[in-house]
Amino acid sequence: QGSSDIDTFKNYTSQSLLWAPYRSQCYFGIRPRNINDSPFIMGIMWFDTNRMDAMPNLRHQVDMDDKLEKFSWVAYDPRIGGKESIIDHENNVNLTISFVKSHDGKNWATRVEGKPIDPNKKTAISIVTYMTQNVGSSSAQTIRPFLKLNKVISDNDLEFNGYSPELNRYSISFKDNFG
Length: 179
What we know:
Layout: H1 2-16, E1 19-20, E2 29-32, E3 40-48, E4 70-77, E5 81-88, E6 93-101, E7 108-116, E8 125-133, E9 146-154, E10 157-164, E11 168-175
Antiparallel strand pairs: 1-2, 2-3, 3-8, 4-5, 5-6, 6-7, 9-10, 10-11
């Protein structure tokens, strides 16, 4: 019985830690923990579209010259997720990013909420969500890794399908929420 319990615990631990913000160089980025040459990668970037120098002030990779007041996890548990707070005075935005995982660790969701720090300041923040399924270098695969748009449900609701040897077939949904 003890051996079976240990195997069950090892499997749960391995699966529950599959997805996390394993991209420490980014303000926010998600990937599976298995390191290989074809990982799925997802992240966010943001900038103020009202600024003439918006692109040089794009926030993506952690840079101390960005002079953010705060970028840290307020709460985080590697098996269930957490909440990150980012305060960017230069772009006049207070971002809250929530990341949650299903009990088995196979599914996850991210929610990005933004509020102006000074509502009287004229800003228009654009948040860019990106993702990629790297294809890797192995030519021995019968199915090459891919990520493609499956269907547009509405302007604010998209569904993607993908495949990689580590994840097998998977799907991703993007939904815009307003208010």
